[in-house]
Amino acid sequence: MAVKVGQSYVSEAALSFAQASAEETGGGNILKDLAKKFPNLKFSVGTAPFSGSGKGNVAVSPKILREMQENPDKRVEYEALLYDVANLNWNQNPTVKSSGVIIDANGEMSMWSISKSDGGTKRAKSPLDKNNKSWWQKVLDELSKKTDGEVTGKVGFNESKRARQLSAAQTKADIRALLELLQEDLDECKDGLSKNWCDEAEVKKVEEMIERAQQRLNELENSAPQIFSPVNILI
């Protein structure tokens, strides 16, 4: 049965595990701590897809790692998610040679896989809605798909989504959070460019959006209310 913790649905077993292991959390390197708790997963920092080898790859945004380090509730939520990820059958399809999960700076999840067969090579990436009680089923459905013809990997920048987020940003903290997301977008597009999964135009779009966000941040910083001392008022 699925239960909700924070913004995520997890299994009851996952939540029980995360709550029970909360007291065992050390104060050192969080990745080492996670690797010890989930030895069948391979952890890395970042959000680039198709960057791991083998199965059970988990790439986590630095922002989420900081939240887990500083917020016990967030730690329980994401460790419960990782418990369910670790207990999925990633080996059900022999054509899948590499696969993994990404947790980005917004806490959103996605999965990727690389499949090979006589028909060719297929690279696939799909979002996972952890707000859906059966998000794990999508993982199993995607992994069970057979390779049909050669499909090249693709990376694209969601310019309209980031533009909406920039328009909605009201504070310096909002802009800084968006800049973190844009930096991850830039890293992903540059990685895609090196593998011919996108062209230079996608990289340029991200760079231009970063410039716009930085300009907006500068405007907010320069528009901070000036504090007048009694001397200044008299003058």
What does this entry look like structurally?
It is a single chain. The protein has 235 residues and is an alpha/beta fold. The chain is 48% helix and 18% strand. It has 9 helices and 7 strands, in the order ββααββααβββααααα. The chain has helices at residues 12-21, 30-37, 62-70, 72-86, 135-144, 159-168, 172-194, 200-222, 230-234, and strands spanning 2-5, 8-11, 42-45, 57-60, 96-103, 109-117, 120-128. The strands form 2 sheets. Strands 3-4-5-6-7 form a 5-stranded mixed beta sheet. A two-stranded antiparallel sheet has the order 1-2. A hairpin with a 2-residue loop joins β1 and β2. α1 (12-21) packs across α4 (72-86). The chain is globular and about 50 Å long. Mean pLDDT is 82; it is low at 147-152 and 226-235.
Topology:
Layout lengths: L1 E4 L2 E4 H10 L8 H8 L4 E4 L11 E4 L1 H9 L1 H15 L9 E8 L5 E9 L2 E9 L6 H10 L14 H10 L3 H23 L5 H23 L7 H5 L1
Parallel strand pairs: 3-4, 4-5
Antiparallel strand pairs: 1-2, 5-6, 6-7
Write a short abstract of this structure.
This protein has 235 residues and is α/β, with parallel strands linked by helices. The protein has nine helices and seven strands, in the order E-E-H-H-E-E-H-H-E-E-E-H-H-H-H-H.
Helix content: 40-55%
Strand neighbour order, sheet with most strands: 3-4-5-6-7
Structural class: alpha/beta
Annotation, overall tally of beta strands: 7
What is the terminal-to-terminal distance?
70 Å
Q: Categorize the overall geometry.
A: globular
Nearest-angstrom radius of gyration? Answer: 21 Å
Fraction of residues in β-strands: 15-25%
Biggest β-sheet description: 5 strands, mixed
Helical segment count: 9
Low-confidence stretches: 147-152, 226-235
What is the average per-residue confidence, as pLDDT, rounded to a whole number? 82
Taken in chain order, the helices and strands follow as EEHHEEHHEEEHHHHH
